[in-house]
Amino acid sequence: MSVFKRIQIGRNPTDFKQHDLFLKGRCLVLRDHRNSGPGAVTIQSGQVTRADVADVDFLRSGVSLTEVQVTPLAHAVCHLDEANRNDVDFFESDGDVSARPKVVILQASTAAGGVSWPHERCDDTVWLSMKDRMAYSRVSEWSPQFLNLSFEDAATIAQAPDRSALAKFEGGFSRILDITHPGDPTAPLAFRLLCEAWYEKNVNGNNRINAPGSLEEWLNPFNVKGDSESDRMQAVVALMRSEDREVVKKVLKAANEKQNLAEAVKAFPGFSVDSSPGGGRQ
Fold first, then answer.
1. Crossing angle of the two packed helices 170-180 and 151-159, in degrees rounded to 10
2. Looking at residue 281, what DSSP letter applies?
3. How far apart are CA 156 and CA 152, in angstroms?
4. First vs last Cα of the chain: how many Å apart?
5. Using CA atoms, how far apart are residues 280 and 51, in angstroms rounded to an integer?
């Protein structure tokens, strides 16, 4: 008996809201909340005939019912409608609690804007939220990386302020980061470098630094088109993945008036006392 719940939908014994499968010998739990349809998994005559989470097909990746011993770590892909992740129970209630593995979960969505809930670690569970549906749809590209993701590495990814803090994962887990932390990882790093150069020249008075002197020069490396404040703001919002327009306004104002930029920049995700201009790069 599996330690994971195999949640049937309706009276049809072939369709499951949640079912544990196996991919390349690793445990992969698929869950889709929609009770009105076939759910996540359909099993007929002992074969998986459908494996779909948030309208993305996993069947072509080679999922199967081949039973293997459940390892100390399992991976799950879920499409949820529960208001609280704490309401989601993956395990059989009458099973041996000590036999339950840790779980790394990728929460998916049919929405183009991705999952609004943040990444988080909760005891023996790590939740990673889909932020880019196009990247999520390429299952064959990211699923091997997902299954190789350790609990500790998943927790590090979940707790990272932005992609620039995850440089060490770019080699082996770039496809996962495309889902959870989309965007060009070099952009925030370039922005930090500009911030530090500007701060060193305009605040500390180091004339050996060839730093931007005007707002136009400041934004030029990022190919900002248009001269309006809205154009500039949108460019910085996209660059820093921050929807806080008031923070963006402070940064643009500080750069334009050659004020101390350090405090304004700290408010962006990924900037701390140690990583802001004048404090050294992480």
1. 50
2. -
3. 6
4. 47
5. 47
pLDDT in tens, 211-224: 776 667 766 666 66
134 C-beta neighbours (distance < 10 Å), count: 10
Tell me if the pTM is above 0.85: no
- Which residues, other chains included, contact 163 with Cβ-Cβ below 8 Å and sequence gap of 6+? 177, 181, 182, 183, 185, 188
Average pLDDT of the residues in 163-177: 88
What distance in Å separates the CA atoms of residue 71 and residue 231, rounded to the nearest whole number?
Answer: 51
- Quote the DSSP letter at residue 276: S
Please give the average per-residue pLDDT across 197-210, as a whole number. 77
The distance from CA 8 to its chain's CA centroid, rounded to whole angstroms, is 29
Domain chopping of the chain, boundaries: 7-180, 186-266
pLDDT tens track for 12-31: 789 999 999 999 888 999 99
